[in-house]
Amino acid sequence: MEISERLYYWRNLKRISVYKLSKLSGVSENHIRNLENGKKQPTIKTLQALTDGLNITLSEFFNTENDDIIYLSKGERKILDFYRRLPKDKADILINFYEQMSAE
C-alpha cells in the first residue's frame, strides 16, 4: 500500500475529514489532498504531523496488514504503566470506573 493509500485509509478509519486533519496536524487541506491523490510525497516531518493528528504512531501508519499488533499511544502507555503499579483492589476500582465512563 502506498503512502497516499495509507493516509486515506487511516483518515477514513478514524472518520476524520481533510479539514479536521488539517486543523489537528497543521498541514494544509490542499497538501493533504495532494498527498492522498499521490501528487506529492510527504517529508518525515509532515508525516509525523499527520500521524500525530490521526493519533497513531508511524509504526501503526505503515502496518495496516497485521491487525494482531496493537501500538499504544503515549497516553495509553502512561495509563497502562500507572495501572500496573496499582495493587489489585485499586486496579479493580479503576477498571470499574472506566466501565462506568464508557457506559454513558
Task: Report what the structure shows.
This protein has 2 domains: 3-62, 434 Repressor (Amino-terminal Domain); 74-103, no CATH class. The protein is 68% helix and 0% strand. It is built from 7 helices and no strands. It has helices spanning 3-13, 18-25, 29-36, 44-54, 58-62, 74-85, 88-103. α2 packs across α4 (44-54).
Produce the secondary structure layout.
Elements: H1 3-13, H2 18-25, H3 29-36, H4 44-54, H5 58-62, H6 74-85, H7 88-103
Helix pairs in contact: 2-4
Any idea of the CATH topology of the largest domain?
434 Repressor (Amino-terminal Domain)
Q: Judging from the principal axes of the Cα atoms, what is the shape?
A: elongated
> What count of domains describes the coordinates?
2
Structural class: mainly alpha
Using the CA coordinates, give the radius of gyration: 17 Å
Please count the helical segments. Answer: 7
The helix content, as a percent range, equals 55-70%
Cα-to-Cα separation, first versus last residue: 38 Å
Low-confidence segments: none
CATH architecture of the largest domain: Orthogonal Bundle
Q: What's the count of strands?
A: 0
Query: What fraction strand?
Result: under 5%
Largest sheet: none
SSE run:
HHHHHHH
By CATH reckoning, the class of the largest domain would read Mainly Alpha
**For this structure, what is the CATH homologous superfamily of the largest domain?**
lambda repressor-like DNA-binding domains
